Each structure stands twice: as C-alpha cells, then as structure tokens.
Amino acid sequence: MLLAVFSDIHGNRQAFEACLKVARAKGAERFVLLGDFVGYGADPEWVVDTAMELVAQGAVAVRGNHDQAVNSSTETMNAEAQIAIEWTRGRLDAAQRRFLAELPMLVEDSDRLFVHSEASSPQRWHYVRSTADAAKSLISTPAHVTFCGHIHRPALYSMSVTAKMTSFVPKTDVPVQLLRGRQWLAVLGSVGQPRDGDPSASFVLFDTVSCQITYCRAPYDIASAAGRIRENGLPPWLADRLSQGR
C-alpha cells in the first residue's frame, strides 16, 4: 500500500489541497496525518473538516501541540503562535474542537509508528534536532519506521542493531530504501509552513511493501495563503515567512 503522510498543515488550505492533489496523482492509497492541523494559517475550519472526512474514510491521524492548545490553556507558545491559537479557538465549532481533543498522541500500525513530535515522550513535544534526539525516540519503540513532524524540516535517521546512528537530509523525489536491518525515523517537513528554505509544501510517500520512502514537494498558491492570513488580522510575519520557507 502507498501511504501519503502529512504533517504540520497549520490551517493552510492552499498547501494542503496541493499536497492532496499531488499525492493522489502519484497513487496514494491511504493518508496519514501527523497533527498540527491548526495554528498560524487562516483556514483552520476547512483543514479540520477535511481531516475529519479523511479519517472517516480510513485515514490515520494523531494530535499535535497546536491542536492540543486549542482546547488547553496550559500549552505555552511564542507570542505570534499564541495569537493565532486564540483566533483559531473562535473559528472552530464544537465538533471540530472535539475532533482535535480526541486525537491520539500516537498510533502503532503494523511495524510503523506515527507521532507528531517523537516517540519517547509524545506529550512533551520534543523536537528531533540531532542524532541524539532521534536515538532517544528510536530506542523507545520496536517499530521499524517511526514517522514524525513538529520541526518543519525534512530529515531521515536510522539506527543499527549496535545502536550506530546515521542521518541525512533526503532529496526531493528520490526514493530511499529503508533496510530491514535498521530502525528508521522519518522526520517530515511541513505542509503548511516549511522551514527548510524551500517554500513548497512538503510531504512523504511510503510504500509498505517495498519499504521505500520518497520525500515530495508540492508548489502552491503562496500569495493566496498569505493574503488570507493578512485579511484576518493575524501577525504579518506568519504571512511573510511562507514565501521564504522559514
């Protein structure tokens, strides 16, 4: 089965639509959503409704820290993110908020694990910034492949049976074979707010039979997404950063 895995959509309708279109054109058979459906972007209602529809059709979805913040006052964020969350609270209806609140922190599916931040302590929202961070996540699960997001920058880590770590930044549209003799941590880029210098929306395709992973990019109408942010009075930097990919 070909999985399309998305993370950190952040209320960006234009980016999410573009990724769904590209993934379907490439033959995606099932969708996985790694959280942070809301925050930053100006179309949280559409994004959450679309996620709800996909889950009803068999998609996997987990909770991100921005999703949790919608229903919790204990999540701490920077000033701009907090402004966006408070604005988002006023846009979502009870059913949409309940959907976010009831999402699991992680999902185990065969020899795969899906989580927003990382597997060792999902509720702490740690970022995977190094091989040490990746190793901590990998040793906490027997899964062959763990998929996570949260940091908005693509990376791929692996650990051998002797705990030797490797890491690299995968190239777009170049399949990587995830060998069975190692454990892997696939860190996704962001659909709605990439921070790796490439403004195109980012997602992953994974073939469950061949164990090949492919990091993909989808150009989208950045001007429209940025315009929506400005129209709704959200912090201008949230619009400006989209064209910069940071």
From TrEMBL:
Positions of the Calcineurin-like phosphoesterase domain: 1-208
Taxonomy, superkingdom: Bacteria
Pfam family, one: Metallophos_2
Gene Ontology cellular-component terms listed: cytoplasm
GO molecular function annotation: phosphatase activity
InterPro entries named among the record's database cross-references: Ap4A_hydrolase, Calcineurin-like_PHP_lpxH, Metallo-depent_PP-like, Pesterase_MJ0912
Family: Belongs to the metallophosphoesterase superfamily. YfcE family.
Protein name according to UniProt: Putative phosphodiesterase
Native species: Bradyrhizobium sacchari
Higher taxonomy: Bacteria, Pseudomonadati, Pseudomonadota, Alphaproteobacteria, Hyphomicrobiales
